[in-house]
Specification:
The structure holds 2 protein chains of 2 kinds. Chain A is α+β, with helices and mostly antiparallel strands. Chain A is built from 14 helices and 10 strands. Chain A has 2 domains: about 200 residues, no CATH class; about 230 residues, no CATH class.
Amino acid sequence: MFYRFFNLVILALRYLYRNRRRYLFLLAALSFGFGVVTVITSLKDGMDHSVYRAAQSHYAGDIVVAGYDNDSKTQFRTTEAELILEAVSAARLDPSLIVRRTMLGGKGILYFNGTPVRQKYILGVDWENEKEYLQGLPYTKEGFIFPEEPGGIIISLTSSREMGARLGDRVILEVETRTGQKNTGSFTVMGVVRDSGIFGTFKSYIALDELNRLMSFGPGDCSSVGIFLKETGNLEEKTRRLQEELEKRVPMGPLVSDRDELARESKEKWDGIRHFIVTIPVYLSEVAELLTALEVIAYFLYAMMLLIILVSVSVTYRLILHERLLELGTMRVLGFFESDLRQVLILELFFLCVVSLFVGFAAARLAAWGISFMSFSYIPSFEIFMSEGRLKALFLFRTTLVNVAAVMGVLLPVVWFPAFRTSRGSLPEMLSGGNL
Amino acid sequence: MTFLLTKTPKRVFFCMVFLALLGPGIGAAETDAELLKQADALVSYPGTDFYAEYTLVLDKPGQGRTTTVAAVFRRDSRETYVIIILEPLATKGQGYLKQRNTLWFYDPQSRRFNSTSSQDRFQNTNARNSDFTRSNLAGDYKIISGEDAVLGRFQCRLLTLEAVHDDVTYPRMKIWISDDGLVRKSEDYSLSGQLLRTSAIPDYYQIGDKYIPKRILFVDALRGAMIDGKFVNEKTQITINNPSFEGIPNSVFSKTFLESVNQ
């Protein structure tokens, strides 16, 4: 049985090779179709990933506990970081990293040689705790000097270009204190980051303690405590557990499911500081519609491509079978069973499909690499999907497997029925090269 | 006092020396505080309304000048003001309405009011929105030190001030008040002591017992550009024309007025 099947496989490969010119168009059509499908899905996955990663690194964590200070004009402040850390520990979240950050949004201005550049975000980070993250930022070729002493600042390439400031230059940072007064500090540029994404274009990093001092925060205060999880699955359950633990320790707002709800709740009046748990999906709910639109477009193109594969394979394969009717009839005369003939035909196409998938996948990788050099700045707000200013594709194993299954699923009925009919055709008709 | 005279003559001597040393200091502090109150009072108009046309010329080194003309309506008794932009064409019709602690900005293109901060820059110039409200230096700041100083042709008292609450834009200030009680110059500092802005008011109109600045020059200490290797500061000169203390209808100090101006 195995020997028979092995012979059929060998025979199918030989026939495929001998009929390579006939199958060339089919190979091209299948490769192109699978390539396009792969490009579509990998770009979509890449965009999703870029948005999530950008948000995760910006907000510092998969789950963030942010303090909303009703008395403060800068809004984000908590004086209960230690109690929050206690709650995180009690909630058994198994974090890989916990970070405390102070954030000043839109109220910071950098000056160099008289040129001001307003910063969308000034982040106060713990240099030592976030050393790995800071070293991993995409710096310009001048590199990054790890600040051993206070007084260092990491700025974006856009800010650097607008001000004309380079590594080692002294810049003045003007901020507003938590009560709205002007305060300033002088900092040395320690790194310039090539980040043109939604969060990174006008973002600077200074030491947590220094931003706290500039904003008149207490030494142990911060804006948020971010929790990076080892395993991001079951996020809702983990969030609920943390909420329960936090409620025992600090004043909490309700759990929110999207950004609108967060905005509504945070506009309520209360005394002092109230805390909210915000997950990355909540932060990203603002771009959820955009992501959904993107998915709809991607799946529409995906379906269209599968349809094109279906039609082109169907037509081409029937044509090939028609051309080979005499040869197939002769095989039957020589003693081939209908089922063997059918299996040879299906195996031929199976191997063709395997080759097409490899060629298509390679072409998709090449195309995605080429696309990463294209500029999409003419599309408004498109930078949110980009990473380091490029549109990056992500080739996930699961998605590739689904794509292979989808192409095979379309191919099987298209191949099976003509192969079945051909193998069962009447011999005189086949030998006379008649219709299928 | 009898105790001092009869029992310990030495103590009397030391007390007299102490009072002699302290006396002028107390007197000066009182005088400085009064001077500050007087400086506020001379440019505040609680009993009347105030109207004037302000021409703001922003000079950005290397980028040329831009002119903004605004009509300013002030009612100090209610701590309110309305400003309407008359020029340039691109921002014509934009308006500001201050109602107590809230400052509204009206954009005729979107036809929407947004709350803005009195600490923000006015029309991207070096003036702040808070520069258009009545002066309350004596209420907002405490005097840290005072000394005599000469400022050009003016004999002045130089006062160093520190904010007593957090609602002011600049936590520290130095002001020069001339003999006639008018503020001639001020320097605004950040909390850390960085000079942020210098203001100069060389001339005033005098209408009755009230004073109105004729020209105000703001020099931004941080903004500017390097021209021929030398740092040139960004400046804004405000020229105030056609001041008037005639009554202004109540309807002017309303959102409806700002909307109707653009219709």
